[in-house]
Every structure is written in structure tokens, then in C-alpha cells.
Amino acid sequence: MKKILLSLILAISFCYIPVFANEIEDDYFDIAANYCVVGDYNSALVYLDKILTINPSNKHALDLKNGLNHVISKDNKSFIDNVSPLVRQAMEYKRIGDETSEWNTLVKATEDSNAYIAYYYLGNFYRSKKEYKNALNAYSASSSARTDFAPAYLGTAIVLFETGQYNSAINPLDKYLSFNPEDDLAYAMKSRTEFELGMLTQAKEDNDTAIGINDCPEYRFDRAKILYRQGQYKQSKELFKSLLNDIQTSKIYEYMGLCDLALKDYTSALTNFDRAILLTNDDEYLEMKYNEVKQILESKNNDSSQETTSP
To answer: Partner of 210 for a Cys bridge, out of 9, 65, 184, 307, CB 3.0 to 4.6 A?
Structure first.
């Protein structure tokens, strides 16, 4: 049951690609994630229902709701009631947007005998504010207070990843996996870390493991990126294209355009870069690639025209 719950938490907190209609849905997912961690599954379901009211076809919300109903049917006890009522209170403050009271209550909760979970939530609080040094200190305090509390290691790895400290992120990920060796999301994050380090063989192996456990669009998106970096442009584009029903972002069209460019399919590249530009507010890189391909096509057309008119 613990493994199921942890996977649900991570799925909505860290590892999905943003495909939601608006920021309200993202906020509701964040609140639901926090309720999941503290064991208040019924409150989490309330916010998932809010998402589904806005967007009834939101697959992430539907999947998570089904998973939570499964957890609730097997365990109706709230984890937080037995560990730290103060942390539950802090989550209520978070829900209503009272960040000052949320922070004060979490600090107070670190004085309890079960301070590890309060420190973990402090880490999450600081990470949301991009106060990364404080976040790392809080996660470290959490793992020191309870060395087998796996989420603290994952929190550490996430901060290190977000701050570009990829080499340092590997160790806490391995530590986390030593407690949860079948967690697909942790393998996916390790693969992403290795991808950033240029360790493509290892990245593919860990991506294979993640997909073997849970074949979801997010992991296949990672796979397509690895294929692109390895120079397998045709396979990469085919995989990106197969994901369009699940993922509609600027990035996926950008990668498809890059694959086309590498394959010298300039007409298709221009179309995909154009679509990528339409899905983003401001991206000088995409504009540059679009103009680069446009110049190539114009040059080819001019050459073709000269050949036709020459005696």
C-alpha cells in the first residue's frame, strides 16, 4: 500500500509533463498531492473532483482518483493523525493560501518527536519558493531524523536536479531506490538526470526500466528525447508523433522539427517549428530555427528556378 501511495504522490507532484488547461488545475493537483502525502485521501479526492469539473477528460485526475479510491478501500486511517496533527494543520493553511501560518506551523511541528515529516514539508515549502539552500537543509534534517524516510532523499534529488547539480542528484536517487526498488517514477527521474549528464546508455537503461513498470506518455517522451540525442532521428520523430494524442506542447513540435531538420525534410521542419511557436509565448530559439529552415527552403527554390530557366 505504501508503494501505491508514494507513486500516486510523485505522479502528481514531480514527473508529469504539463498538459493542463490552466494554472488552476495545476494548483488543485498540488493541493491533492499534499493531502495524499499526509494520508487525507478524502480531501485529495475533493480537489481531484474540482479538476474534473473544469476538465472532465483530464486523464491524470481520473487515473489518480481511481488509484486513491483503491487505497481508501484498503486503508481508511489517516497517516497524519498518527504522526503529526500540526502538519495536517499546516496543510489546511496551505489550502487557504495562508503561507505565513503554514510556515510557522511546520516550524513548530519540527519540535515534535516525529519531526522528520515536518522537515520534509518544510523542504517542499522552500522548494516551491525556490529557496533551494533552505530546502536542501530541511530535507537533510528529515533524512537525519529518520534515515528510512525515502521521500526526503527524493526531495533532495529533485532540488539538485532543478538547480542543475546533476552529478550530486544521482546518489540520493540511488538511496531512494534502495527503499523503493520498483518505483518507476524514480527510475524516470534518474534517467532524466543521466540524460542531462550525457550518459545516454544509462539514461536509456533506466528509461527502459521505468517504461517496463509503467508505460506512460511521459516516459515515452523521455525515450524520444534520448533517441534524438543518439542521432536516431527517424525513430525519434515517429515516437514523438505517436504521442500527440496525449501531449500537446511546444516542446514536442520543437523536437519533431529538429528531427525533420536533421533528416533534411525542410518543409515538415518549417511546419513543426511554426506549430511550436504558436504554442509558446516567446522563444527566440524557435524563431531562429524557423528562419534558418525558411532560408534553406528559399535557397533551394531559387536554385531550382535558376536550373529551370537556364538555356
So the answer is: 184
Q: How many domains does the chain have?
A: 1
- Three-state SS letters, 68-105: HHHHHHHCCCCHHHHHCHHHHHHHHHHHHCCHHHHHHH
Q: What secondary structure letter does DSSP report for 34?
A: H
Return the CATH number at 291: 1.25.40.10
Domain that holds residue 256: 197-300
Distance CA 294, CA 273 (A): 10
262 found inside a domain: yes
Output the pTM of the full model.
0.75
132: cell is: 533551494
With a CB cutoff of 8 Å and minimum separation 6, the contacts of 291 are none
Assigned C-alpha cell, 250: 511546444
Model pLDDT for residues 78-118, shown as the tens digit of each residue = 444 456 789 888 888 988 889 999 999 999 999 988 899 89
Question: Domain for residue 229, yes or no?
Answer: yes
31 found inside a domain: no
Cell numbers that stand for 156 in this block: 533532495
On whether the CB atoms of residues 152 and 176 are closer than 8 A, the answer is: no
Give Cβ neighbours of residue 113 (< 8 Å, ≥ 6 apart).
none
Copy the grid coordinates of residue 243.
Answer: 504521442
